[in-house]
Amino acid sequence: MEAIVTAVSRSAEHNFSKQNQPSITLIEGVGVEGDAHAGKTIKHLYLLKKDPSRPNLRQVHLIQTELFDELLEKGFTVKAGELGENINTRGINLLGLPTGTRLSIGENVIIELTALRNPCVQIDTFQKGLLKAVIDRNEDGKVIRKTGVMGVVIAGGKVVPEDSIRIELPAEPHQPLEYVW
């Protein structure tokens, strides 16, 4: 299966969910044009209070659409943009990619993956019990965060649904994505 973009979303406000769009424009070193999380320094409200000077490693939030399929089997209905993501994908295991992976999207856009997204308690306000459904543990007891990955924009441009995604892994040794505030 080819890796593709299935939906794109943004919100100028710091809301839990983002509105689907026909396209979004990514700006190099900043993020999604018109999105509340765009900027060279951190824009996440909780993290902003801790240190507003930190570089923004959370410029773009991506979630694999396969998560929604899994959640549907558990009784939850979640649609693109509702968990606050900017880009939904299909055909790519985002959570299994190493830190520094570059995703080339469409003709021009390049996003470098920086971290896992940590699901917060607001997710249970959106749908009761959803937080537990998006957190798992592996056989070693390590927490598995399923709510997507974060990245920075290396090369900007327009992203639309059905854009193809190409994966460029970083040099070895690979480091797994971790939650980074």
From TrEMBL:
InterPro entries: MoCF_Sase_C (IPR005302), MOSC_domain (IPR052716), Pyrv_Knase-like_insert_dom_sf (IPR011037). GO terms for molecular function: catalytic activity; molybdenum ion binding; pyridoxal phosphate binding. Coiled coil: none annotated. Residues 19-168 form the MOSC domain. PANTHER family: METAL-SULFUR CLUSTER BIOSYNTHESIS PROTEINS YUAD-RELATED, MOSC DOMAIN-CONTAINING PROTEIN. This is Molybdenum cofactor biosysynthesis protein. It comes from Endozoicomonas elysicola. The lineage of its organism: Bacteria, Pseudomonadati, Pseudomonadota, Gammaproteobacteria, Oceanospirillales.
